[in-house]
Amino acid sequence: QTGMFTYDPGFTSTASCESKITYIDGDEGVLLYRGYPIEQLAEGGDFMETCYLLLNGELPTPAQKAEFDYRISRHTMVHEQMARFYQGFRRDAHPMAVMVACIGALSAFYHDSIDITDPVQRQVATVRIIAKIPTIAAMAYKYNIGQPFMFPKNDLDYTSNFLRMCFGVPCEEYKVNPVLSRALDRIFILHADHEQNASTSTVRLAGSSGANPFACIAAGIACLWGPAHGGANEAALKMLTEIGHVDNIPKFIAKAKDKNDPFRLMGFGHRVYKNYDPRAKLMAKTCHEVLGELGIKDDPLLDVAVELERIALHDDYFIEKKLYPNIDFYSGITLKAMGFPVSMFTVLFALARTVGWIAQWKEMIEDPHQKIGRPRQLYTGEPCRQYVKISSRG
Ligand code: SDX
After folding, report:
1. What atom of ligand 1 comes closest to residue 326's alpha carbon?
2. Gene Ontology terms, cellular component aspect (predicted)?
3. What would the pLDDT profile of 325-369 be if each residue is shown by its tens digit?
4. pLDDT tens column, 225-261
5. Ligand 1 site, CB within 6 A
6. How far apart (Å, rounded) are the C-alpha atoms in residues 384 and 104?
7. How far is ligand 1, taken at its centre, from the CA of residue 118, in Å?
8. Of the four listed, 274, 346, 356, 391, which is most buried by Cβ atoms within 10 Å?
9. Residue 197 CA: which ligand 1 atom is closest?
10. Is 367 a catalytic residue?
11. What is the Cα–Cα distance from 115 to 128, expressed in whole angstroms?
12. Strand pairing partners for 6?
């Protein structure tokens, strides 16, 4: 039942709800979207097909896919007033801060016009958020680097459009590299949904009160930003850069094992996967494909990552704690090679996860038994006691 919370002795309340969208077997390292293995979806179709599947429960027919692609592409522009929001930020504002603000601002444009109790209008909100998130993300990047915003182009596929809005300039035609576009599209598929992770639970809890779906997605972006969650891809790359050379790995492995040291190996471990994150394997494969396409032979960060993984997978501490690389371990190296700055890594995670968030929001809103989420607590504070006037206190 949505919103039912259970407690474990660690006082870690885990939201439990029923969902038909994503299945994870953490011990076996299995991830299914609507019953389809992530490995097959990542190799078989494109991100738009995965979006359709997550939202509707079935893979689209060719006609349904074409219609979905068309509808999404016709909503990729944002209101011209949205462009003025960016002017209020410093140029060096973290793009995740910009994303939280601008996605939240979208609710101001649609709040009064979308009745979420109407299925047709829910569909409108769903299409608009999926369509506009790449444009808003690309605008955050362009604002950071002081380049003009690029309008979306309707004759490009979703991911190629995003690459052009990021790396294209008005002065010349942008030539999409199909290998890189396909690789990024696969990375979006890998990040699309992941059951009741922290940010999805945030979106569900916010949505359970009937809040505007755009405001709920903004809440999910805020939660994803944390280094223990979606911010780990940025943190993992910073960690690999700090390690710098394979000779320094043992020192960091020792830090990760030291209970008195808050350092953790970023991109390692997972609350659910106690086996290899299936997405990490596909991420590593994509990383090698991208570096190969770009002719990058000796990437010191990749050397450190591969050796760190090799050592950790044979280390008794990590084996006993069941710590394996997760999706964030190789994604940073790949995105950096593609030309994205570290500050954009979690933005790309949020871009891809938006379809998972809105699909889970839609499933919750359409549940006739849905109630507002209301976590309880185990109270560990003072027993009831009498008030003492300040004049009588010591
Ligand atoms: C994502 O939930 C999702 O599905 C999230 C996500 C998604 O798609 O939405 O998969 C995306 O957030 C992936 C995780 C990205 N975060 C990181 O890579 C940050 C580094 N990882 C850790 O912070 C940690 O592994 C977590 C936060 C991911 C999980 O933390 P937990 O639940 O505390 O880990 P655990 O209970 O499995 O830990 C078991 C033990 C603990 O030691 P003890 O208290 O038992 O002595 O392993 C230790 C932890 O201290 N440990 C680590 C470690 N991760 C856990 N020690 C060193 N390095 C690590 N990375």
Report:
1. 13
2. cytoplasm
3. 999 999 999 999 999 999 999 999 999 999 999 999 999 999 999
4. 999 999 999 999 999 999 999 999 999 999 999 999 9
5. 194, 197, 228-230, 232, 256, 264-272, 321, 323, 326-328
6. 40
7. 39
8. 346
9. 2
10. no
11. 14
12. 14
ipTM value for the complex: 0.90
Quote the CA–CA distance of 253 and 266 in Å, as a whole number.
11
Closest C-alpha to 337, from 159, 177, 228, 140 = 177
pTM above threshold 0.80: yes
Ligand 1 atom 15, closest CA: 229
Amino acid at 171: C
Candidate list 229, 270, 288, 314, residue with the active-site label: 270
Q: How close is the Cα of 272 to the center of ligand 1, in Å?
A: 9
Beta bridge partners of 33: 22, 36
- Per the annotation, the verdict on 92 as an active-site residue is no
Q: Compute, in angstroms, the gap from residue 256 CA to the centroid of ligand 1.
A: 12
Alpha-carbon distance of 55 to 123, in angstroms, equals 10
89-110 confidence digits (pLDDT tens): 999 999 999 999 999 999 888 7
Residue 334 to residue 291: CA distance in whole angstroms: 7
Quick one: which of 192, 179, 152, 183 has its CA closest to 168?
Answer: 152
Statement: residue 16 has pLDDT above 80: no
Contact 240, 305 (CB under 8 A): yes
Q: Note the pLDDT tens digit of each residue in 298-332.
A: 889 999 999 999 999 999 999 999 999 999 999 99
